[in-house]
UniProtKB/TrEMBL annotation:
This is t-SNARE coiled-coil homology domain-containing protein. Vesicle trafficking protein that functions in the secretory pathway. GO terms for biological process: intracellular protein transport; vesicle docking; vesicle fusion. Residues 142-204 form the T-SNARE coiled-coil homology domain. Belongs to the syntaxin family. GO terms for cellular component: endosome membrane; Golgi apparatus; SNARE complex. One of its GO terms (molecular function) is SNARE binding.
Amino acid sequence: MRHKIEMSNPADLWVKEYGEASRLADEVSKMLSERGSLPPSGPETQRFLSGLRRRITILGTRLGKLEVDLASLPRKSISDKEMHKRQELLSNLRAKEKQMASALNMSYAADREDLLGSSKGTVDEVKRASGLDNQGIVGLQRQIMREQDEGLEKLEETVYSTKHIALAVNEELNLHTRLIDSLDERVEATDSRLQRVQKRLAILNKRNKAGCSCMCLLLSVLAIVILAVIAWMLLKYL
């Protein structure tokens, strides 16, 4: 009982929720450190980055709730020193969340730059071509075309993997649709059977009532006959 009372205290609940947010921040930080071990592109990398961004979004939402809850705590529930300590902890965790979100955005930007190439690279190529003769320019153009082909291959790989993910999602949606349709058909069939059973039960109930009425009438007539015979025998022998 004492444990329940303590957990119902808003100040204690805030500490519990802060601990959960802190553990989530540590998980995000660990995932960011593992980002370098993954390939630049591919389905596995896309799933990893999607999960990472989802966790950062959840972390930001929890921190926003913690800020609101901390501001709405009754002043008598905690001391000024404790309030300042919690504000500092929350501020540090918010700064860490922003830093991790920025690192993720930089990772996305780096991947996009590796895939499509940067404008700075184009300027450097123009500078390189300015001091070349015709044969050197042709060689540079071929090199640039090879690099562009490699970028297009990476882009094709990304589009291909995205297509497969979309097809998989579509197949799953179709499966759920078929399951729902099958469930609707079974519900309709069961409803029809229940209606037929209810009609049969109603007919049997009527028959039972009619049979009981006939039996009661027959027993009544038989009882009257027996009483009449007994009365006749008494009158005859007395």
